Amino acid sequence: MGCTPVFRRRLMTMSKNRSTRLLIRNPPATFLWKVDGNSMRDAGDLIVVDRSVTPADTDVVVATAHGERSLKRLHLKGGRPRLTFENSDMPLFDLPEIAEVEIWGVALCNVHWLRPRRKV
Amino acid sequence: MTSFALIDGNSFYCSCEQVFDPTIATRPVVVLSNNDGCAVARTAEALGIGMGEPYFKIKDLCRDNQVVVYSSNCTLYGDMSARPNAIYRQWCSDVEIYSIDESFLDMTDIRPSVRARWCVSTRNAHA
Questions:
Q1: For residue A42, is pLDDT > 70?
Q2: HSE-up of B92 (CA within 13 Å, CB side)?
Q3: Which of B18, B63, B98, B112 is at 20 to 30 A from A44, Cα to Cα?
Q4: Mean pLDDT to the nearest integer, A17-25
Q5: Whole-number Å distance between alpha carbons of A36 and A43
Q6: What tens digit of pLDDT does each residue of A53-91 get?
Q7: Quick check: B94 and B76 in contact, CB under 8 A?
Q8: What is the per-residue burial (b if ≥16 Cβ within 10 Å, else e) of A57-93?
Q9: Any chain B CB within 8 A of the CB of A28?
Q10: Looking at residue B95, what is its pLDDT?
Q11: Which of B115, B105, B113 is nearest to B84 (CA)?
């Protein structure tokens, strides 16, 4: 699913507030991304992305492939690394034999608002 | 003897934009001032774009050389500026934030023999 970074100061991951430390372990390396409206189910969710964490098998990551950036699940076991869609019928994201993929960061958790709101 | 380190981000606004768009990491990037007036940050000095060069003067040059041009995104730069400063504070007791991308650190308490190594470690610190 598509995602865009969020920089609004109110959501700053650099907040000194102790309660945010539950979600954010390494503030200088943690960023907030918002899930785009492309994915109906999780649209509007905030994803907490940590760049200082080494990506591991089955992590959800912000990945850039084919010049496009999105959230994908990373699979490292069983031969070649693969990316799969998180929310789709298609199980596998098609990558050619030689592909340049950048793993921007690892999604640690997802903030899902139960009450509808107009803007972040 | 009192010693200070001055840490300065390279083409800071451009670097911030490049973090969020890996496809432009190797391309020349220019960031413009408010209302897209002048080039206030550039990775493209080699193209002859000086600091503060009015955009209308370099517009053709940018287009011909596939220079990526951004308007200012001050919210982004402010957010990004706080991150290395937080890392400086982890490594040093006294940090003076001088500008959005420059900070002075008091290195007096760090032994001269380890200062170079300290600088490298700070630079490589995560993020």
A1: no
A2: 28
A3: B18
A4: 70
A5: 5
A6: 999 999 999 988 877 888 888 888 878 888 887 665 555
A7: no
A8: eebbbbbbbeeebbbbbbbeeeeeebbebbeeeeeeb
A9: yes
A10: 94
A11: B105
pLDDT of residue B100: 95
Q: From start to end of chain B, where are the E strands?
A: 4-8, 29-32, 38-42, 53-54, 68-70, 95-97, 102-106
User: H or E element: which one contains A101?
Assistant: strand A101-111
- Per the CB < 8 A criterion, the answer to whether B70 and B31 are in contact is yes
- Six-digit token pair at B43? 């990775």
Predicted confidence (pLDDT) per residue in B4-30, tens digit: 999 999 899 999 999 998 888 888 999
Angle, in degrees to the nearest 10, between helices B74-91 and B12-19 = 100
Chain A nearest-CA residue for B74 = A7
**pLDDT recorded at residue B25:** 83
Residues from chain A contacting residue B87 (CB–CB below 8 Å): 28
Q: How far apart are CA A105 and CA A108, in angstroms?
A: 9
Chain B residues at the A interface, defined by Cβ less than 8 Å, are 20, 22-23, 73, 75-76, 78-79, 82-84, 86-87, 126-127
Search chain B and give the residue with CA nearest A11.
B79
Q: B115-124 and B74-91 are packed helices; what angle lies between their axes, rounded to 10 degrees?
A: 140
Question: What is the structure's pLDDT at A120?
Answer: 52
pLDDT of the residue at A97:
67
Give the predicted TM-score (pTM) of the model: 0.84
Residues of B marked active site are found at 102
